[in-house]
Amino acid sequence: MSHDHSQAGHVHGGSDKKRVLIAACLTGGFMVAEAVGGVLTGSLALLADAGHMLADSVALGLAWYAFHLADRPATERLTYGFGRVKTLVAYTNGMAIFAVAVWIIYEAWQRFLEPPPILGGPMLVIAIAGLAVNIAGFVVLSGGDRNSLNMRGAILHVLGDLLGSAAAIAAAVVILATGWTPIDPILSVFVALLILATAWRLMREAAHVLLEGVPASLDRDGIARDIAAHVAGVREIHHMHVWSLDGAKNMATLHACLDEGADAHAAVSAIKQRLAGSHGISHATVEPEYGRCADDHHDHDGHKHHHGQAVSR
């Protein structure tokens, strides 16, 4: 197996960990002020954003802890280490955002039916301060690794907060200018729908990684054909599996059927170099074989079973 432990990767991971911690502190700190402001002004937009920021504070804290766990070495029981914890946290974050968005929509409907009085002036001041805090958090996180699902989940959380603050500002301006308070729950629902869309995308991508699906940027059958066509001594590739450990690090296992007399060590080395250099797969397990595949077998009735695809040169 080949391993990719570049110094750049470690540096980037450490930087992402610090960025997430800073964003968690910013979000959690202002969340209290925004919740108090929402109660005092009667604004659902502020309360919704505060509720979202509460979920985000917890989610960002979990994201930081996921980076912390990812730094630990592999164990006898967890042979791939803790890298996938980040993907699991990203999926959990998506579920948390989804739940908050549903609550916002329900509360908005209740307030639309019976609009409460809202203090537009204080609401505007608090919303502007919230926007400034969320912009700072977004800028901090934007410098991180965009290929990391965990980092992208953290960015989505802060982006949702930023949109919530912008909606609260717009609602406050309308209320101050016209006195029309239903704009508050209406804009809250708009933000909730945006949050639902981002949460769904995050959950779908994280679930794809957890289910060990082929990364969207890679074509498994195309890679198999490429190896069979460009690596000397390889007759066909089958039993090929390609997946991502954490949304950034790609891995593969495959069987390489070699021509008679081909050097197995040279062929395996060439395959791994091709996977890493041309396809971004840094961690691969290659099983060389001659003639019949070792995994082909007969059941008790004499029926032969084949597993996976075969791509000939």
From TrEMBL:
Annotated ranges, domain Cation efflux protein transmembrane: 20-211
Keywords assigned by UniProt, alphabetized: Ion transport, Membrane, Transmembrane, Transmembrane helix, Transport, Zinc, Zinc transport
Domain of life the protein comes from: Bacteria
Composition bias, Basic residues: 303-313
One of the Pfam families matching this protein, by short name: Cation_efflux
Record bears the keyword NAD: no
Record-annotated membrane-spanning stretches: 20-40, 46-67, 88-106, 118-142, 154-180, 186-203
Biased composition (Basic and acidic residues): 291-302
Cellular component aspect of the GO annotation: plasma membrane
Signal peptide: none
Main location: membrane
Membrane topology per record: Multi-pass membrane protein
SUPFAM superfamilies: Cation efflux protein cytoplasmic domain-like, Cation efflux protein transmembrane domain-like
Residues in Cation efflux protein cytoplasmic domain copies: 225-289
Location of this chain's protein in the cell: Membrane
Segments for region (Disordered): 291-313
Gene Ontology MF terms: zinc ion transmembrane transporter activity
Family, as annotated: Belongs to the cation diffusion facilitator (CDF) transporter (TC 2.A.4) family. SLC30A subfamily.
Alphabetical list of NCBIfam families matching this protein: CDF
Name listed for the protein in its UniProt record: Cation transporter
Species in which this protein is naturally found: Allomesorhizobium camelthorni
